[in-house]
Amino acid sequence: METVTPEVCLQHQRVMDERFARDKERIQKLEDNQSRIEILTVQMGEILKNQNDAIKNHTTRLEHLESRPGGLWDKVGGGIIAAVTGGLAAALMGLLIR
Q: What are the backbone dihedrals phi and psi of residue 62, each rounded to the nearest 5 degrees, phi first?
């Protein structure tokens, strides 16, 4: 069996140290990216919450606006019924008073 010389051992250690240094840099970059992704995820959650609130607000406003013409037609119909009823009551009173 061959013995390992100190020079060969040092060379292998240098190679391993270089690999570990590169791996450490890669891991640090990955951790930084993960932190940024976490921050973006929180921001996206806040944006979605704001968008949902805005949609609910728009829905409420739209329902109110859509119901207004129906309410106006109800008022017109009520006015017509009141006018016809008033006219009939006036005609009936006119006939009774003669």
A: -65, -45
